[in-house]
Amino acid sequence: MQDDRIRDIAPKKTILENLVLYKFSKPMVLVFLLFIALCVSYLIARQGMVMGLLIIGFTVGAPILYAAVAYPRVGIVLFILLSFFINYQGILGLVPPDAPIGVLMDLMTYLLILGFFVKQKNEKDWSYFNDPISYFILIWLGYNMLEVINPAASSVLAWIYTVRTVAFLMLLYFVFVFQIRSKGFIKTLFKLLLILEFISGAAAFVQEKIGFFSFENRWLNAEPLRLQLLFIAGHMRKFGIFSDPVVFAYNMVLASILCLSMLFTNIKPWKKVILVCLMCFYLTVMLYSGTRAAYVLLPAALGMLAILKFNRKVMLFAIAGGLFLGFLIKVPTSNPALARFQSAFNPSKDASFNVRAENQRRIKPYILSHPMGGGLGSVGVWGQRFSPGSFLSKFPPDSGYVRVAVEMGWIGLLLFCAFNFVILQRGIKYYYIIKDPELKTFCMAMVLTIFALDIGNYPQQAFVQYPTNILFYLAMAIINVTMRLDKQKNEFQPG
Q1: How confident is the model at residue 339 (pLDDT cuts 50, 70, 90)?
Q2: What letter does residue 493 receive in the DSSP assignment?
Q3: CA distance 363 to 410
Q4: pTM for the predicted model, two decimal places
Q5: d(Cα 403, Cα 376) in Å, to the nearest integer?
Q6: Bridge partners for 231 per DSSP
Q7: Which residue(s) pair with 236 in the sheet?
Q8: Whose CA is closest to 452, among 248, 200, 292, 254?
Q9: How many whole angstroms separate alpha carbon 484 and alpha carbon 360?
Q10: pLDDT at 486 over 90
């Protein structure tokens, strides 16, 4: 009894002290560490710096890979972090220009899927996926797999390279639905996204106001075509930590939509002030991208917001926003960024829009005559690589919907549009059913995100590049999760 009292009043040692005093102080452990240090030194001396980098990569990477499988929430956070910075590695010069950095994202995807099956093996609960969105994911995935036997496809390898990313990314929806199990984790993900978007916006702000870093200039000048595409009307389009101004602009819009949605939660006034400041910052740096397609996304999201929250305050806010937008569109200006913003709302006078319209008119007969399209990967980079010289390899897939129609036919386009309709239909339905105010707002934010991406997928390809493609499936999953969490909360409430 006395020993217990002494133990209780004795100062408790920290984990670090226990580790150093009772683990690393043992003779066998010291001998083992000395042996490892000598082996590493020998390998670096014999093989050079490359071996040292490999050892560091393994030392850091192995725990990360284990955490992605054993601790799914950690894996999801790491995956989102990686999706934001994966393309910037090439700009930084950390990897060779031709390095297959996409394989790293594939590896993380496989690990998350593996972690899902490991946990599902123990729980054996498939009720998480008993909803129309999950069913349509499987239908869309099955149609992608069916494209391997498309008689019009010119290359099976193009299908393999395309489905390797597209199909497995679809499975992440199931991972997100299964592993996101609390309101707190949703908040964590939202905070993470806002921080990452702020880093990207800050990078674009520096690029605009100060200039590009030396490594960014090297990357820009490495390919003349890249510089030609980004330098428009005497102004260099900014891209933040992404490799594409379109991806950057779309992410800034999505971040501003998230800030706008969070204003409807019950948070302290000073937090709302921060959200408003962040939203203004995101929209300002978005103009630096010169991506006109992004300028219409926020007004579209505001229209959907006015429909979802049909009350006097929101309608007044929407009307005020519409008047301000009209002022920006019509006000005379010599500012190149604002002038480009205004041109987005007058597409008939835009040369690039007319070129895209002509391309769509030209490809229409091919789409109508090929119900399953020309096969996955028949246009764009994979088309030029695996079927060079073909008709489709020379076609510019400017629109995400046009790309689906060309590669997967009018059947695929109908399925894809039905798929997106079901997502929005369920999201809107869940929004009105959910009782918890906070979960309701989270659901609304994701509905606005999906709606904005659906609009943005017409002038550009909104679902094909990191991290936007990840955010698309994450938003779908959170729509499902908010409904599930609300049901669970109501089931456990007394009475």
Answers
A1: low
A2: S
A3: 12
A4: 0.84
A5: 9
A6: 236
A7: 231
A8: 254
A9: 41
A10: yes
Total length of the chain: 495
What is the distance between the alpha carbons of residues 473 and 176, in angstroms, rounded to a whole number?
8
Residue 241: strand, helix, or coil: coil
Strand, helix or coil for residue 350: coil
Q: Where are the beta strands (DSSP E) in 156-306?
A: 231-232, 235-236
- Write down the H helix ranges in 10-101: 15-18, 27-47, 49-70, 72-85, 88-92
Identify which of 193, 198, 286, 203 has the alpha carbon closest to the alpha carbon of residue 247. Answer: 286
Query: What is the DSSP annotation of 367-403?
Result: HHH-TTTT-TTSSHHHHHHHSTTSTGGGS---SHHHH
CA nearest 356: which of 399, 404, 393, 392? 399
Backbone angles phi, psi at 427, to 5 degrees: -60, -45
Q: Using an 8 Å Cβ cutoff, are 359 and 401 in contact? A: no
Could you report the per-residue pLDDT of 381-416, keeping only the tens digit for each?
777 777 777 788 788 877 889 899 998 999 999 999
Rounded Cα distance between 279 and 9, Å, is 52
Nearest one of 105, 101, 81, 103 to 91, comparing CA atoms: 101
Phi then psi for residue 232, to 5 deg, are -130, 130
Q: What sign does the dihedral 239-241-247-252 (CA atoms) show? A: negative
> In this predicted structure, which of 101-105, 302-306, 332-336, 376-380 has the lowest mean pLDDT?
332-336
User: Degrees (nearest 5) of the Cα angle 430, 431, 433?
Assistant: 60
> How remote is the C-alpha of 313 from its chain's centroid?
32
Burial of 23 (0-12, 13-18, 19+ CB in 10 A): exposed
